[in-house]
């Protein structure tokens, strides 16, 4: 798993994904669900009824009370984690793609080490990755590492949403039109009660360091424009950048999507610390 260093892998082994969502898969995992099942984690007792499994009778309690009680256990079920990665052209700038890929593998690794089911998608033309268990970690890393550049993540992503997910993670720089983002989250929240946006940004994008006469190229559309970058135009750019970010947060809040902004230059360890601080990891 070349995207993850041995030190980072060791760090990730200490964490699990935290969620209030009760959506679970039908197979065993390492997360307690609210329903009663057959794991080794004791819950409580209930009275014996004809037809119950007599192997679940607690004979020690019977010896004390002369009444039959059945042991109840917490069922442990897998979580279903879906990770969506934006690999459009704008993500290829300032190290955002490598940062986001590493973060995607980190989240997937945490889920897989707890025997959860992980799916990963980035393009409607490429079948999603779907596996579970610790042995799938290398396969996930390879799949993510070789994710290619796509044209329209926000639109393509809607076609790859699995039903009944526990958590959906969206990793993007959020630079697509706001209407495209809102369309995606509207659909995502119908597939999962817990949807989270990880917005990946670079310090280079927030503040323009260029000056003078330059040609700017839109990384998504390849549209070119010649501008004279003065203090006034830089200020106007920064105001629009800030306004776009505020609208993105507003859309997330309106649809119950949790959002964090992560800065590439601050590094992956800082990003993991942010996830812990905001109780996305525990």
UniProtKB/TrEMBL annotation:
A Pfam family reported for this protein in Swiss-Prot or TrEMBL: DUF58
Task: Tell me which residues make up the DUF58 domain.
Answer: 44-245
Please state the span of the N-terminal signal peptide per the UniProt entry. Answer: none
Q: Which SUPFAM superfamilies does the annotation name?
A: vWA-like
Taxonomy, superkingdom: Bacteria
Identify the PANTHER family for this entry: BLL2464 PROTEIN, DUF58 DOMAIN-CONTAINING PROTEIN
The molecule here is called DUF58 domain-containing protein
